[in-house]
Hints:
The structure holds 2 protein chains of 2 kinds. By secondary structure, chain A is mainly alpha-helical.
Amino acid sequence: MPEKKKGFVQNMREVIYGMAAHDMSRYALRTRASMEHLFILITMGDMIGIPILPPYYSLRLLPYVVPQISTWKRRLLREKDISDAMF
Amino acid sequence: MSLKRIFEQHPERRYIMFGGKGGLGKTTFSAATAYWLASQGKKVLVFSVDPQASLSDIFERDIFGKGPVQIMENLWAQEIDADQHIKQYQNEIRQKILDMYGFDEIPEEIEQYIQAASAEPAMEESAIFDAVVDIVVEGNYDYYIYDLVPLGHALYYLSMAKVYDEWINKITKLREEMREYEEMVSRLKRERELEEDAILRELLYIRSRINESSNILTDREKTAFFFVVVPEEMILIDTQKAAGLFAKFDVPISGYIVNRVVPRDLLRLEIPAYLRNRIEMQDRYLEQIGVMFSDQVVAHVPELERDVAGLPMIKTLSEIMYAD
């Protein structure tokens, strides 16, 4: 894709975003991700042996969480490490 | 009040159920009621979800898992094959995953989950009630006669429905909160509108299905639930317990039908002591039934001289049940 030179306004906008809002949105995304994992735990708990939602209905939700399943399992099984302090 | 009067006075009660311990005549009464209503010109579907269903036997036709089968004018019968329903449902889920992500095959751990989920005992109950919702929502019958499996099953589902409903409310709330965070991020990043949350939509759908299926059992206006009893001690004790539980879950009980009453006319004949004793025993329990359920007893059905199977016998029975 041909790179277009950014105008001054565009540059300023990104700098201001970086100073003011980036942290906030990163925090929001992290919270959102934790909630996502909580959500999968509640609905797909059977996968790790915690049945909560009736399986008939959790199957309906399964297709939507397929991509997150492996990160979710990793996160649940992970022990605390240095990255917890970093991010 | 007679059964016939109840049906005449409450034409809005379109979901008819017969409950009671196994082997007391629920299927027989379902068939006879369906026959009577159909012969009154109403379009009737009588259906069963029991894997050991006996509608096939009573109508003397194999209808298991074949969808609604017409038995005679205005009368259809259906036996739901829960296993088949679950398999079909699993395949739909698999197909959806393949379509959504363009996979060639289902990832192993996902497949394992699909298989494990279907082995759970709650799976069958849910699948059955889900199928019932389909039948009741889709069909355009005047009456649905639900040949209920033994009581525990229905109670289990009702209590499940209550718990699930609360759970889904909580999950939905979590999902909505997640949504707020998502919106916040997209505002901060000045992105355009988010796409619709498909999971939230599914959750709302699930909640509506669960509510719908438990409503069919508890709708005071449209549902008539009849308990089948026989004049025997154990049955009476059990029925009283079950009736209490059903009341707790707001199942509207429309009446009790007493089955297998030995005809009193026999007493005028020379009969063996064996039979005389049975009649005396039944008399005792009939009296007890009168005290327990008083005016809620809507019919006494005699012990017939032979099995009820095939339309002519069903007709005979329906004429007894729905006499004036």
